[in-house]
Amino acid sequence: MSSETSPVPSPRGITRALLWLAVATVACLPAVASSCRRSCGDVAIPYPFGMKDDQPGCAIPGFEVSCKRDGLLLKPFLSDDVEVRGILLAESQVRIKMDISWSCYNTINRTMDSINWFLSFRDTPYRLSDTGNKFTVIGCRTLAYITITKPQQLESSSLTTGCVATCNSQGDLASLSDGTCSGIGCCQTTIPKGLQNYGIWFDDRFNTAKIYNMSRCSYAALVEASNFTFSTSYAMSSAFNDTYAGQAPLLLDWAIGNQTCEAARRNPNPDPKYACISNNSDCFNSSNGPGYICKCKEGFHGNPYLDDPELGCKDINECTDWSKYPCAVPGTCVNTPGAFKCVCPPGYPKGNAQNGTCERDQLPLSSGAKIAIGGQNMFSQATD
Ligand SMILES: *[C@@H]1O[C@H](CO)[C@@H](O)[C@H](O)[C@H]1NC(C)=O
Ligand SMILES: *[C@@H]1O[C@H](CO)[C@@H](O)[C@H](O)[C@H]1NC(C)=O
Ligand SMILES: *[C@@H]1O[C@H](CO)[C@@H](O)[C@H](O)[C@H]1NC(C)=O
Ligand SMILES: *[C@@H]1O[C@H](CO)[C@@H](O)[C@H](O)[C@H]1NC(C)=O
Ligand SMILES: *[C@@H]1O[C@H](CO)[C@@H](O)[C@H](O)[C@H]1NC(C)=O
Ligand SMILES: *[C@@H]1O[C@H](CO)[C@@H](O)[C@H](O)[C@H]1NC(C)=O
Ligand SMILES: *[C@@H]1O[C@H](CO)[C@@H](O)[C@H](O)[C@H]1NC(C)=O
Ligand SMILES: *[C@@H]1O[C@H](CO)[C@@H](O)[C@H](O)[C@H]1NC(C)=O
């Protein structure tokens, strides 16, 4: 078809053609540029993450962070206002900081003043980690809810979970104990998989009007479970909020795209393009929502998203870490791609260097002579 006879392309058609060209160009680009900035303040920013204002290709779309100055420090942020404390590549997680919601009795106008936080990662690769976080409520007479919508948009169909913390009676106070979050002064519950947003609100029917001298404020937050240990001081003071300076760590799971490994691998132009490109990497369907993640094969470490001999998945030399990869007979470790072996030295064909000893075959002349290598040193043993 000649250009004279083809219809004038509509703007929509032009857009589509340009998009197609852009995809084709990206597919031909070499490895991720080494000039991409890979840290912000004290936080490493490994690919697929990258700086928002860096050159194209430094991040997979959706994984951009902005590096901003906060006083003297540089700090990375997701969606411009959510601070990133760490990117956990092997776990496919990001640790962020999120504000603690609170509700306090106001002695002047005799009402509860509350600050309820809402966080949304809709249309992003991030989901709240159901295994890493717990909804945590602190107080002596409080009921707080976690929902997937803002409280003012609540519908009966919205997912809502509540957690009650009380410590009203003398018996309750006596049974408050450090490290135990059991409903007395502290309540914790898990959240379902796949959530991309949450809001917190307090039920005003549970309020501290009658106990404000003892416990005026209650607190609630979704918190990284392994970072939280209940302290009895939390129930009756602002110690919880103070310990975390108003912001608790929270884990997000992330995933690439919204397809399974197989579909993304098969698709010639998936968006984004298939990401598990390092040698010795494997693809796994995300366990928390759609999409997939990449990991180095067992026995390899590095960045599974990079096709780079130095930065991609490299063999772990197990022989340099005797404490993690022991051979019972020292000095017998042999590194192999992805694994290691414990090999008895030549002349010691009997035994098992992995979990036993290496023994020399009986020699024809000195019958009964047997050399064992064991413990930390080699020794010879004459037996007759
Ligand atoms: C109570 O007073 C606080 C300020 O001290 C104000 O923020 C809040 O809106 C007041 N509440 C009501 C219900 O008037
Ligand atoms: C709180 O303490 C104040 C001053 O000590 C006292 O007047 C008030 O009655 C107490 N309120 C309650 C609910 O215990
Ligand atoms: C909890 O997180 C904070 C900030 O991320 C960190 O400084 C602290 O060491 C963590 N504590 C534990 C017990 O993990
Ligand atoms: C919690 O801590 C934050 C940050 O320090 C502060 O702004 C907020 O007022 C505190 N809230 C309460 C109820 O203590
Ligand atoms: C999957 O991702 C593609 C590209 O980002 C998007 O166009 C599509 O709507 C997504 N599908 C679903 C079910 O989220
Ligand atoms: C990913 O999920 C699909 C569909 O549930 C399944 O057929 C496939 O085996 C899974 N792939 C991996 C690598 O787990
Ligand atoms: C990946 O492995 C192939 C085959 O072993 C090798 O030819 C290639 O150079 C490797 N690529 C990288 C980036 O290490
Ligand atoms: C020692 O290692 C051998 C081979 O790896 C294995 O078959 C055997 O069960 C091991 N014995 C013990 C006591 O672990």
Automatic annotation (TrEMBL):
<dbReference type="InterPro" id="IPR049883">
    <property type="entry name" value="NOTCH1_EGF-like"/>
</dbReference>
<keyword id="KW-0677">Repeat</keyword>
<keyword id="KW-1015">Disulfide bond</keyword>
<feature type="domain" description="EGF-like">
    <location>
        <begin position="315"/>
        <end position="354"/>
    </location>
</feature>
<dbReference type="GO" id="GO:0016020">
    <property type="term" value="C:membrane"/>
</dbReference>
<dbReference type="Pfam" id="PF13947">
    <property type="entry name" value="GUB_WAK_bind"/>
</dbReference>
<dbReference type="GO" id="GO:0005509">
    <property type="term" value="F:calcium ion binding"/>
</dbReference>
<dbReference type="Pfam" id="PF07645">
    <property type="entry name" value="EGF_CA"/>
</dbReference>
<keyword id="KW-0245">EGF-like domain</keyword>
<dbReference type="InterPro" id="IPR001881">
    <property type="entry name" value="EGF-like_Ca-bd_dom"/>
</dbReference>
<dbReference type="InterPro" id="IPR000742">
    <property type="entry name" value="EGF"/>
</dbReference>
<keyword id="KW-0732">Signal</keyword>
<feature type="signal peptide">
    <location>
        <begin position="1"/>
        <end position="33"/>
    </location>
</feature>
<dbReference type="GO" id="GO:0030247">
    <property type="term" value="F:polysaccharide binding"/>
</dbReference>
<dbReference type="InterPro" id="IPR018097">
    <property type="entry name" value="EGF_Ca-bd_CS"/>
</dbReference>
<dbReference type="InterPro" id="IPR025287">
    <property type="entry name" value="WAK_GUB"/>
</dbReference>
<protein>
    <submittedName>
        <fullName>Os04g0369600 protein</fullName>
    </submittedName>
</protein>
<dbReference type="InterPro" id="IPR000152">
    <property type="entry name" value="EGF-type_Asp/Asn_hydroxyl_site"/>
</dbReference>
